[in-house]
Design goal:
Blueprint lengths: L4 H13 L12 H22 L4 H8 L2 H13 L5 H18 L10 H25 L4 H22 L9 H25 L5 H7 L2 H14 L11
Helix pairs in contact: 1-7, 2-3, 2-6, 2-7, 3-6, 3-10, 4-6, 4-9, 7-8
Amino acid sequence: MLLALPFLFLWMVWEKREHALPSLVPFGHIISLLIAGAFFAIDLALWNWSIDHTTIVNSTLFNNTAVFFAPFILWLTIGERQTLWFILMTCLGFIGCIFLVGESLTISVTNLLGDCVALTSGLMVALYLITLKRIREEITTGFLMFWTGFFSLLFLALFAYLFGEPFWPFTLKDLLSIFGQAILVHILGQGFLAYSLGKIPTAYTALILFLAPLTAAVLGWIIFNEALSEVITPW
């Protein structure tokens, strides 16, 4: 998050120069951005913790249960109902992901802690998306990304301190990995996600997140040898 902030700041400054942004300070939206940053930080903390206690595919699949949490929370809070077609497609997509991951999806007592933590992180993703949606139509993408990133940084630093985690990477490999996450995952991935919230409903954005377990299944198979199924052999 720290490495991403300078690039996000330049993005926000560019928006101001293009007259798409009246101010660099989040007047009127600071509470919503703070809450969104907190939800995102908790999601990241729980998701990364879950990976130590379950498989990559399990953690990613359960993290993306936001597609179920988001419509349910929207229905409870503002009475927004989804169509039967959307509900069917959501269930079909989830079942499809389960079939795709094959052997990599392992439900067992050993993985129970990691699975529950990943499931909770999925709830945090849903709350994060809903909070962003409330303000996304009023502010620009770069502005939103910078300030949610800034507040997430504060919460993540607090978590690192409380749980005794190392704050700085110790090797060049670690630094390259974290820099890649800053650029590819946060600035590009989360940036496109934030942009989409201004164009499509929150529930549909959550549905698109099913691409994550698909990607995790393929990369987990290639890089970490977590087999997709017995009948698939890499060439």
